Amino acid sequence: MIKEFIGIAIVFLFLTGLSAAAENACVGCHASVGATKGIINDWKESKHALNNVTCDKCHEAAQGDKDAISHNGFLITTTPSPKDCANCHSTQVSQFNAGKHSISWSKMTAAARYKAIPNEKMRESMCEGCHSIGKIYADDSAGKCDSCHTRHLFSKEEARQPEACETCHMGLDHEQIEYYKKSKHGMIQETNRTSARAPGCITCHMDEGTHDVSQGTTIGTVSQGAFISNKSSGNDYVKDSNGIAMRAITQEQFDTNRNKMLSICARCHSRNFAQNVLENADEIKVQADKKVGEGIIIIEGLNKDGLLDPMPENRPANPVTGNKLTITGQQTYTNTSGIEAEFFGMFKYALIHSWKGAYHMNPDYSHWYGWAQINLDLEKIKSQNRTLRRIAELENAQKTTEKGTKATPGFGTELAVLGIMVSLLLVMKRRS
Ligand code: HEC
Ligand code: HEC
Ligand code: HEC
Ligand code: HEC
Ligand code: HEC
Ligand code: HEC
Ligand code: HEC
Ligand code: HEC
Fold this sequence. Notes:
Keywords: Signal
Pfam families: Multi-haem_cyto
Largest sheet: 2 strands, antiparallel
Structural class: mainly alpha
InterPro entries: Multihaem_cyt_sf (IPR036280), Multiheme_Cytochr_ET (IPR051829)
Bound molecules: heme C
Shape: elongated
GO molecular function: oxidoreductase activity
Radius of gyration: 32 Å
């Protein structure tokens, strides 16, 4: 018994001695040799430094860890994971895991557009630069926590600013930062820099500091959004036969999440006012989806009649769906046809702006970049459809005439030439 106690005590002393050595060694050496100076400075400013959370607390690795490297007498990892953070912040880690940020890596790798990029080096600086928020680490935990509170300051104040979200929530297919910044909410934040009077992104999406950003989203969720599975709103034919365009949610899920969001609006607005705003956005989504549905029907028709140029079977295969027609969710922007390329812009950019703009109270994105552009794109699709069909008609007509003349191949011309020669001879004879 006593022997065992001494044994444990020795192991304990040995271990604490070792980590005390690491605590001092990491910061000590890095500071003295001037290695990673910026990191040391950031860390010194952080709450972690204040609480003696030294480099080793996150970076130390165990023997056998897949990502362990030996470093000046220590086993370390260069990529601490959420599992390391969870030792001290298990609440944030499990909330994060409940929200869609945590699935962003696997959603990305399943996408045809990801697979279609020529190589790993390019993918790393493209899709992965944003979808790393759900990065999967060597220990299988998911989530890059420094996506919002950058290393090594790890500040919650920084993460609270809308700018913390902007590197990723920007661009043609999800311009939330611009919808927001140019809305009345964004204007008030920008002019007053106070999140008390007007909401910032986190007021609506990380209520009470939750790390589950999926709370309160309904049919206005990521990517192409969702449709209510047990209610016909007429927009569900845009749902993707290949799986990743629109999600299905039930009316019950819709009500729970909508009530959650409205409870936030109702801190500043009347509930009726806010409910009306969100219902308008729902309506814009349904109507815009329907418009895009018209484009889908046209392209499917051309495919059925063999009129896409080139036809899917005559192009390099889509990395996920193969040689069949693939529009919406798994459509790629390479190896496509002109009319499908037109559709891509309507579906991926204009459609998105129309309703994501509306959910973020931005009339301009909703109308000019959104609804107006969808309608213009649809006109172009209709016009290309007519052109393709007219060309096909002309080609068919030509084939039919060719068939008619082919019955006496070359004979007509020969006869004509003969006729002319005979009449020429007659004329010459008469003259002489
Ligand atoms: C004897 C000095 C020394 C000690 C002790 C030391 N480091 Fe380093 N470390 C360095 C230097 C110098 C570099 C910079 C190497 C470079 O620029 O490529 C470095 C680089 C690193 C890197 C980046 C490695 C890479 O491949 O990208 C990490 C992470 C790191 N140190 C963490 C730690 C941790 C954690 C500890 C304590 C357990 C520690 N260091 C202890 C000197 C030291
Ligand atoms: C609170 C946890 C934490 C602490 C404490 C911490 N790091 Fe890190 N460190 C991280 C995370 C997280 C990453 C990024 C992981 C990734 O890329 O997925 C990182 C990355 C790094 C990198 C590689 C990336 C780069 O920018 O070069 C170096 C070097 C590094 N840390 C050094 C240090 C040093 C030195 C200390 C102590 C002064 C330290 N870290 C303290 C969490 C921590
Ligand atoms: C050894 C325990 C420990 C580990 C591991 C750890 N932290 Fe911390 N962290 C703390 C302590 C202690 C505080 C200060 C808490 C306070 O001030 O109430 C803190 C505070 C924070 C804060 C709030 C800072 C602020 O501005 O108030 C953030 C953000 C944070 N940690 C992120 C992380 C992330 C991300 C990781 C993993 C990469 C991590 N921490 C790993 C102990 C840890
Ligand atoms: C490093 C990139 C990155 C940063 C930074 C980032 N996000 Fe995201 N966010 C994503 C990606 C990628 C998704 C899509 C996840 C999925 O479904 O695959 C996403 C999805 C979301 C969703 C949709 C949730 C749902 O259920 O529909 C919300 C809301 C969100 N983010 C809010 C925020 C807020 C607020 C911030 C800033 C505090 C932020 N994000 C910062 C990349 C990021
Ligand atoms: C989408 C952006 C985003 C990501 C990703 C993120 N955080 Fe945060 N985090 C925040 C914001 C915003 C706050 C401040 C919330 C508040 O107090 O209103 C915060 C606060 C914290 C705090 C301080 C909590 C407190 O009450 O003082 C800790 C600890 C923390 N985060 C840990 C983590 C860990 C661990 C991860 C990775 C699993 C992570 N965060 C990923 C945005 C993010
Ligand atoms: C006033 C509240 C509010 C603010 C502020 C806000 N959002 Fe939203 N956000 C919403 C609503 C409402 C939805 C749609 C929810 C639904 O599905 O019913 C939404 C949806 C989203 C989605 C899912 C796709 C979409 O756009 O519909 C993302 C991602 C998102 N917001 C990110 C952000 C980011 C990043 C910011 C800050 C730049 C932000 N939001 C600011 C209320 C807000
Ligand atoms: C600028 C950062 C950024 C880049 C680059 C980026 N994404 Fe995204 N992606 C996001 C954000 C943010 C969301 C969620 C917001 C939304 O949809 O409104 C998202 C959503 C998605 C979704 C939908 C996820 C779901 O849960 O349904 C898929 C799939 C996706 N991206 C794949 C990719 C692929 C593949 C690439 C590269 C070809 C890529 N993304 C490039 C930021 C980015
Ligand atoms: C923190 C307080 C706050 C929250 C939360 C908030 N708002 Fe606002 N909102 C304001 C303020 C202040 C204005 C500016 C009023 C004005 O234009 O005079 C505003 C303006 C608006 C406007 C445009 C101006 C108008 O009167 O038409 C709309 C639309 C709107 N909010 C909808 C919402 C919705 C929907 C939610 C919830 C998803 C929400 N707000 C959440 C404070 C808030």
